[in-house]
Amino acid sequence: MNDLERELKDLFDERARGVDTPVLAPEAVLRRGRRRQARTVVGGVLAGVVAVAVAVSAVAAVRRPDAVVPTGPNVLPARSTWIGGVPVTAQAGWTLVNDWPLAALLSTSSESCSFTATGVPVGPGTSDTSAVEGEQQPSPSCTTTPTVLPAGVPVLQLANFEIPLLETVCGLAENPAASVPNDGVAVYVADMNGVVHTDDLLAACPGSENVHDETVMTTFADKQLRTVYAAVIVAGPQASSSDIDVAHAYLDSLDGIRITPTAPASTPGPGYVLAAGEAGDQHWRLEAGIASFDMGSGEPRIGAALVTTDPDGAEGSVTQDPPAGGSDTEDTIQDFGDAGVVQWGTASPLVTGVDLVAHDGTATSATLMNWPDSLRNLPGADGGLDGSIWFAAVAARGEVRPTLTTDPTTATTASDTNARDRLATRETEGGGLVIYGNDLGHEWEIRRADGQIRFFVDGQLTPSDTVLSLATGGSTHIDVAGGTFVVGIYDPSVTSLSVAVDGGPTIHGRYLPGQTNLGEPASIWVLALPGSGTGIETIDSFLPRFTSWPTRPWTNGSVIAGGSDRAVSWALMYRDAHCIVLTTLGADAGDAGTSDCLLPWADLEAEGGLPMIGGVYGQTRATIAMVLTHRPETSVRSTDLTEDELQCVDIDVESAFAGTTMCVFPVEAGHEVTVAVDQRGDALGGPYRIVAGQGRINLYAPTPTASP
Amino acid sequence: MDEKTSSLAGRTLVEADHGTMAELYTRYVPGGIRLAYLLTGDRHQAEDLAHEAFVRCVGRFGHLRGHGAFDAYLRRAIVNLHTSALRHLRVEREWLRREGPRAVAATASQRDVSERTDLWDALTTLPSRQRAALVLRYYEDLSERDTAEALGCSLAAVKSLVARGTEALRTQLTDPKPEGDER
């Protein structure tokens, strides 16, 4: 170490010592940490934490999940399941709330610290204090004590009315108890964190005093006797005796049992349990509630989730948003192998029934259920909750055939009633066909010129790069004064194109059946986006895509490029002169997210000239972005990726990003992809081997460049 | 080992409840704030940076197998956040420069670097990654390989950053210049 390095070390040590640091963790930071955890905990990890499934033989007759028996349209079926390890059976029509995910968000302990310091007293006249300086650091002694929650940490609630999500009939630390209707009855089950103070618990549960002559609460414990659970009945003053009997029967079934607790699935929750069942040695629950949290705002997003519990008691989940844009249904499956599949999804208000048609032509009718009303009051709710959630247990995935309403009243309230509006046409003197319209204050036409399909605005040919695609599946953005036209040529089966403007309305496209230059059948779509903005573009039931307009200049939020497949849609989004991020939407909500900043190649070149690898590391798939250059030409190869999967964008817009290439490709969780990068015949670092796990990647390369 | 000890030993980071999170904070964040201060020269920004990094890291417990890993991830998150925060600051400065000198002065006054020494002054003029490389090598005492890991770059790039950083400091100390743009 030379003198300068030694000086540096001394300077750093001296400056660092002078920094006052908090000894106690600020509660606000811990709260943010817990919220972040709630978003990222994954079911697979929980398997290592959670103990094994239990035989609750004494009460098995009551609680073993039975086959789901639909009781009629939009009526909740009977459900038997376990929540947090606690068995529960809900009668048809009763509300069952999984509150267990709240455990990740509630503070269950607090910490206090005391301080001691040692040192040598400095007497009068003593000037040399250096001898004691190194010993004057306070040494905290901290103790963690449980936070007193009179009503414990809620696990589940069972009620003959709809308890608003995020509310509980027994008051929690900062939240008052939810009101109970006059004829309401509810059972509240909570983890008491080891201690039950009966008087305090009942005091936190208004309505428990309305339960007369019978047991109003009971307790039970986990097998290791680490904690104790309590179940309390609350009722309105005019509750029926039959409903109270239902609550008592449930309490009786819990009395004194021993359970094996389980941790909640990766779905943040909480949620309403709409259906439940078993398939082979696994159990499943269909829930409607908080499916995820927005990565930016932190607000909850409402969705449906299928939660599975494996034989070891570990939970996993798949989520599904309400249908977007012009889609009638979204569907997915949970495959239980030989035990069949649960096919389920969400449907628009136009859908009155869903049939699943197997390969042999047999049809199974799915059970449709309304979204619980109280979800509409949550921040993440939108019009999608006017539709329904559906499911069916079938042998194998079937073709989804929705039955659509013919009720004109419903039709007019549908989200994309304009989707099938046709574009106007006229014939030219020569017999040619012209598509025309007036939008954004401009007369526009689409007609054939110079052998190409071209777009004219106010009689003027738009720039040459707006020659409309010869093939289907592409769209072009054409900026004009007052807005941007989106002109797309899509397969004729496409029935809707819309853009949901962020903070604004949904704008629908118009179409005309026609042909491409190659004579293939296609539809031309035109959509007029006013002013400037960002939004989500949706084509039929395909995954939505981020979009922005105008195309220039780039501002924060501008979409530079994007793509999608059935699992993930992605966009490279401009943030600032030195930052582009990759942002994704996923068929699985756990695959949605935004990467850290991807830097211009010029910045990387200054730091060694190696590719940068970043991306969104989702629960089922990592979407990887690799920053390279095309000046000089740089090639990317991978035998693990198809041509469609490896998509590269050369950026040549005058900016710090000029000369930068960004390549985007997927790596499924549990799989790996190796990418080789060559520049002028020489390897540019690497090869880079990317192994994706749930919510993470491992990068193996001679010169690692990934961000954590 | 009694039952209590046994159950604690069996706890993993995945279980990170309130108590564990507070323990992690107490154990690692103060050091993180000091590191962030050396990177930024601003105590408030350092605390914000360390807190943001801590929140991000505790949200990713699934990756971590031990406290040592947490330390490394926190360090790396701080360095990464610092780079992006600095970038934001640079953009702000560009904007403020266009808006006029009064606003620039307001930004300058936010910096919390007292008792400047020549060396400290010279450090503030280094590009952020050079400064980060020096801090990681000579304050955190990381090896070149660990520094590369923390910076997310190659070993060669670390050697280059440290060499260029120390060279720039020498030049600054022998031929001081007015404060320039910070990267």
Describe this structure in words.
The complex is a heterodimer of chains A (708) and B (183). Chain A is mainly beta and 708 residues long. Chain A folds into four domains: 71-107 and 148-259, no CATH class; 271-406, no CATH class; 416-552, no CATH class; 577-708, Immunoglobulin-like. Chain B has two domains: 12-113, Orthogonal Bundle (Rna Polymerase Sigma Factor, Chain: A); 115-183, Winged helix-like DNA-binding domain superfamily/Winged helix DNA-binding domain (Arc Repressor Mutant, subunit A, Orthogonal Bundle). In chain B, 74% of the residues lie in helices and 0% in strands. Chain B has helices at 3-9, 18-40, 43-58, 67-99, 101-110, 118-124, 128-138, 144-151, 155-174. Classes of the chains: A mainly beta (708), B mainly alpha (183). At the A-B interface, helix 1, helix 2, strand 4 and strand 5 of A face helix 2, helix 3, helix 4, helix 6 and helix 7 of B.
Protein traits:
heterodimer, A: mainly beta, 4 domains, 10-stranded mixed β-sheet, B: mainly alpha, Rna Polymerase Sigma Factor, Chain: A, Arc Repressor Mutant, subunit A, 2 domains, 9 helices, 74% helix, disordered N terminus
**Could you tell me the radius of gyration of chain B in angstroms?**
19 Å
Poorly predicted parts of chain B: 1-19, 61-66, 90-116, 178-183
Sketch the major β-sheet of chain A: 10 strands, mixed
Total individual domains of chain B: 2
- Given this structure, which CATH class of the largest domain in chain B is correct? Mainly Alpha
| Helical/strand content category of chain A | mainly beta
Mean pLDDT of chain A: 76
**CATH topology descriptor of the largest domain in chain B:** Rna Polymerase Sigma Factor, Chain: A
β-sheet strand percentage of chain A: 35-45%
Largest sheet of chain B: none
**Count of structural domains of chain A:** 4
**Coarse morphology of chain B:** globular
Judged by helices, strands and strand pairing, the structural class of chain B is mainly alpha
- Give the strand order, joined by hyphens, for the main sheet of chain A: 10-8-9-7-6-3-11-12-13-14
Largest interface: A-B, 65 and 64 residues
Strand content of chain B: under 5%
Helix content of chain B: over 70%
Order of helices and strands of chain B: HHHHHHHHH
Q: How many DSSP-defined strands of chain B?
A: 0
